[in-house]
Design a protein that fits this description.
The chain is an alpha/beta fold. The protein folds into two domains: 53 residues, no CATH class; 92 residues, Immunoglobulin-like (Sandwich). It contains two helices and eight strands, in the order H-E-E-E-E-E-E-E-E-H. A four-stranded mixed beta sheet has the order 2-1-4-6, with no helix packed on it. A four-stranded mixed beta sheet has the order 3-8-7-5, with no helix packed on it.
Length: 165
């Protein structure tokens, strides 16, 4: 058989040669999808509750980061807070705040109204009882899962396999 060609094999490959490249593309695509399955899973973007406290005329934590749709429960743990504290959006020019806990007295906690509907952005928080008491709130879009992130890649792989790219 050394060097001798089988005319039937050549005819078959000539007619079905494109099949080999399709199979090769499919193997590459499935390998890529399998590799995505090995990525560590990110936490599912479930709505979360975060607690923020008032202590010694400050917010703890001072800077708060949440995802869109999350909630904040404000706890007053400041024994020197007098009338109490609030977690309110600091506004200027008489604008109504987008979120406000109302005044919370020592030892009490309350969910801050309006937090879960805030759009992405940065907000100043301020105590309505003690205006110098300020902090920051950062609202980010919810995290995407690896499946969501992989969807464009999978779509492109399918387009390559089907020859629609």
């Amino acid at each position: 058989m050394g060097g001798r060609r089988d005319p039937h094999s050549e005819a078959f490959l000539g007619h079905h040669g494109g099949m080999r490249s399709t199979v090769a593309r499919a193997l590459v695509a499935f390998s890529a999808i399998a590799a995505l399955a090995l990525l560590p899973a990110a936490p599912v973007s479930a709505k979360q509750e975060q607690k923020v406290a008032a202590f010694f005329i400050d917010y703890v934590p001072h800077a708060i980061s949440i995802n869109e749709g999350d909630t904040i429960v404000f706890v007053n743990s400041d024994p020197f807070g007098g009338l109490g504290h609030s977690l309110t959006q600091g506004t200027y020019g008489g604008a109504a705040p987008k979120f406000d806990s109302g005044v919370v007295t020592l030892g009490q906690e309350k969910e801050v109204a309006g937090i879960s509907s805030l759009p992405q952005g940065e907000y100043v928080i301020q105590c309505s009882v003690h205006p110098p008491m300020k902090g920051s709130l950062f609202v980010d879009p919810p995290a995407r899962s690896p499946v969501d992130a992989a969807t464009p890649i999978v779509t492109e792989i399918i387009q390559i396999i089907t020859g629609k790219r």
